Amino acid sequence: MPILELKNVSKSFGSGPSRVDVLSDINLSVEDGEFVAIVGFSGSGKTTLINMVNGLEFPDKGEVLLHGKPITGPGPDRGVIFQNYSLLPWLTVYKNVKLAVDEVFPKMSKKEKDQHIRKYVEMVNLSHAIDKMPKELSGGMRQRVSVARALAMNPEVLLMDEPLSALDALTRGTLQEEIVKIWSQDQKTAILITNDVDEGILMADRIIPLKPGPKATLGPEFKIDFERPRDVTEINKDPQYKRLRNDILEYLIEVGSTRRQVSDQKYILPDLKPTMPGRVRFGKKKKSNKVKYF
Ligand SMILES: Nc1ncnc2c1ncn2[C@@H]1O[C@H](COP(=O)(O)OP(=O)(O)OP(=O)(O)O)[C@@H](O)[C@H]1O
């Protein structure tokens, strides 16, 4: 059974003339341990989609199921990393992580808890800053704390809503690497919301475009089967990577322009920036380096 399923999900906001039909007929099935990226235009409904998985929003139609049961609210089985860090400014790095750990593991001994917190802070390379306040940290460091906090809760599913989009390319590359490393070590299931096709290709097993709304729905999936750990330099040189990237972008641009003809809503295209400099390697190893198309 898939760990997560969205079945015929539709979601609107408001009523009467101000009603916005954001998502329509969304179907998604995610297997345990998979890394899925949902890529789409700004304003197409990506956050609404992830909020339903997180239990912050509920579908008007259809159902969102975790282990076959409807999601009724947020829970420790799902860890979320947002774009805007969401750290408590009056707590140190250690205490920001501890707050989450206290909530999820109330029975853990003081010593175990301390080791647990330090392990995750170490995992994101922030041991040297463990007693610093958020205001003393750079954007990338703050986002690392968010990653450590989400992972220290040991969720089954890691939900990431454009977690790296505010960061510079180098920090972004390093954090992409760290997230994939931890995902592969801890065998988590991960859902990444991004507007960056390259990020999806480097990190995920599958990319699913969200067609822009109104009534946005999921498009055909693109299987990403590059060998892991993924070497950015090697991938950048691979003609299959270029083909795959072009196919996804072309698809997004095509559905974007079709939708614009039937809607006056404005969309911002996903990132079309050049690929990052080759420095990092991504995730666990896979047998084949063939790219599959569906
Ligand atoms: N609580 C709400 N009430 C009314 N409208 C909403 C609400 N939440 C989202 N919307 C609308 O739903 C649409 C999709 O928003 P959403 O934030 O899900 O898009 P997104 O793809 O995540 O955008 P971005 O990439 O810019 O973050 C937008 O038109 C937004 O104004």
Characterize the structure shown:
By secondary structure, this protein is α/β, with parallel strands linked by helices. The chain has a domain at 84-154. 35% of the residues lie in helices and 21% in strands. It contains 8 helices and 12 strands. It has helices at 46-54, 93-104, 110-123, 139-152, 169-186, 197-203, 232-237, 239-262; strands at residues 4-13, 20-30, 35-40, 61-66, 69-70, 78-81, 157-161, 189-194, 206-210, 222-223, 230-231, 281-282. Strand 1 (4-13) and strand 2 (20-30) form a beta hairpin. Helix 2 packs across helix 3 (110-123). It starts with a strand and ends in a 12-residue tail after the last strand. The protein binds adenosine-5'-triphosphate. Residues 13-14, 20, 22, 40, 42-48, 195 line the site of adenosine-5'-triphosphate (ATP). This is ABC transporter ATP-binding protein. It holds the Pfam family ABC_tran.
